[in-house]
Amino acid sequence: MLDIIEKLQKEALEKINSAENKERLNELKVAYLGKKGELTALLKNMKNIAPEDRAEFGKVVNEAREAIENTLNNVGSELAKLALEAKLKAETIDVTLPANKREFGHSHPNVIALHEVEKIFTNMGYEVVEGPEIEFDEYNFTKLNIPEDHPAKDEQDTFYITKDIVLRTQTSPVQARIMETGKLPIKMISPGRVYRSDEVDATHSPTFNQIEGLIVDKDITFADLKGTLEVFAKKLFGEDTKVKFRPHHFPFTEPSAEMDVTCFKCHGSGCRFCKGSGWIEILGCGMVHPHVFDMCGVDKNEYNGFAFGIGLERIALLKYEIDDMRLLYENDIRFLKQF
Length: 339
Fold this sequence. Notes:
There is one protein chain. Helix 1 packs parallel to helix 4 (54-90), helix 2 runs antiparallel to helix 4 and helix 5 (109-123) crosses helix 10 (312-319). A hairpin with a 2-residue loop joins strand 6 and strand 7. The protein starts with a helix and ends with a helix. The chain is an alpha+beta fold. The chain has helices at 2-17, 22-33, 38-44, 54-90, 109-123, 137-140, 172-180, 222-237, 290-295, 312-319, 333-336; strands at residues 127-128, 134-136, 165-167, 186-195, 207-217, 243-250, 253-262, 279-288, 304-311. It has a 7-stranded mixed beta sheet, sandwiched between helices. A two-stranded antiparallel sheet has the order 2-3.
């Protein structure tokens, strides 16, 4: 029996010393020292050993177990050391190599145009105010003098959530909310996302951005409106820009107008970009309708004011000479890198 133990120990040590990895060591540990291992099986046979030989037998088995455990630990440490050295060698960093170039993003053309417009108006003393994109029908339509039977309220034009709640079709509801606070005078612009039930094409999208402006104060005239928007156009498109106002109709302003600017590509002489007219339409505007003041709690006999609305995408398309609105939303890096 002692010869068997000696042979088993010799065999185990040879296999352990020749193990190539940690997984093989674990297999050998289970094979010899596990609950069903060969050395453990020998200890279970102690009951068959003569009583006078059991002490010697147990001593030899324990010595074999200790030798196997020590060898397992030593070989395991050596294998771990070799694995670490191999890993360090494989992951060596050459600090003399040039660093990998990191690409940095930049603002979207819409954001660039928005910041420029905001800067122009804040320099003129305007405050930037934001409001909810999910709005009550009352603020989106009624308080802006848009009656119940107005075409703009058709479900084909407006996204209704319930009968009384819509995705706002313009940022004008922010103006109504600010007027309701009663903190006068008001001098503000309200940029933000708006929603209309439009088919996607080169000039339309169901989601786009607007910037609306409002002034409410005493003794405001249409001349103030024209002067303000002329300064805005010159700052945005160049000092040689001229403006032209054409009569129009908007429910929330009276009188109302659309404003054109001289084509910044041909400077008014006529080209393909302005369809030969020399002018490009950029916004709608007008004096705030007295009925709007009534519904928003402003004394129309003491206060008056003007409002205007600008499509942000239209500004970006014109300023950067982009001919398809869809390019702004497709996230094509080849396009966006140009700005």
